[in-house]
Amino acid sequence: MEIQTETDKRKQFVNNMMESAIRIGLLFILIIWTYDIIRPFVIPVLWGAILAVALMPITQKLEAALQGRRGLTATILVLLCITLLITPFVMVSGSLIEVVSHFTEVFKQGEIKIPGPTQKVADIPIIGSKLFEIWSLFSTNLEKAITHFLPEIKTAAAAMASVVGSSLSTLLMFIVSLAIAAGFMAHAEASSEALKNVTIRIVGKHGAEWTSLTAATIRSVLLGVVGVALIQAILIGAALFTFNVPAAGLIAIGVLILGIAQLPALIVVLPLIGYMFSTQDTTTATIFSVWVFLAGLSDNFLKPMLMGRGVDIPMPVILFGAIGGMLATGIIGLFLGAVILAIWYELFLAWLRADDEKVLAQIEDTSTAEK
């Protein structure tokens, strides 16, 4: 009888294992299928949430002026943001098309005349002699220069076309993300409460604190990374337009992209200084050089001032998280990396506080026992 009972238990155990394995397998397949379905929407939704958090303070101020109509406020703000996104893109695209069309027409008519370099170009350290040689070749024998550098020209053209295509898809993604952000902002309280409930359910009592920390970190990164990059682009762009540097708008956008990517603006500034000294008089070139050089270094004192404002997390933690996240997952990693490191920092502090509480409790128990 005991042997029969033991056999039945084993059969029941095996049946339970098989049933559990089948259920887990089906659940796993369902999760994979669900992820495949929602994967195209993950990045736009994340960007929508980030933009909603970043724009929420502006929405609240504008809402007061519109007598508390949150939906209308969010719609107006998002339409304004979309306009600000599309307008520079259209202007730059139109300028590029116009320039390409002009050069194509001039090239067909054989009227291209490139001015030769001055001796100042040859005097530039390290790259001066090579740059003088290439520039001279293009100015004296354009056909031979194009034939000689045709592989490089093709590679540059392909890279430019790829950048334009990628920029267009990114622009469309941001428009969709802004529309999603409008929905989040219109229902901010409900969205915030739902997120807090989910976070508390997952991580416990600190969930509400981490939700607030996430919002504050996103705003800090937006101000300290994107804001600083925008200030740098405006300062350098103002110098470019003041001194009538060709393609000033494109160069300013390049400075903005470099700033967001956490690359030094001096990558663009130093060649511009060389160009001005080779084409302008010494006084003009010196004034321009001082202006753009100081603007290129402005992030060194702007970031400590703006990064980490409103957050009890040290600025280096947020900065390292933003840079590491961007290297790992692209631009969106600026925000995700900073948020993840901020949460880990809070976890570390909570662990230290827990140990301190244990030590204090032991000291109190010891003192009580001695009494």
TrEMBL record:
One of its GO terms (cellular component) is plasma membrane. Pfam families: AI-2E_transport. The keyword Nucleotide-binding does not apply. It is a multi-pass membrane protein. Keywords: Cell membrane, Membrane, Transmembrane, Transmembrane helix, Transport. It is found in: Cell membrane. The chain crosses the membrane at residues 20-35, 41-59, 71-91, 157-186, 221-241, 247-270, 282-298, 318-345. The keyword Membrane applies. Its main location: membrane. Belongs to the autoinducer-2 exporter (AI-2E) (TC 2.A.86) family. This is AI-2E family transporter.
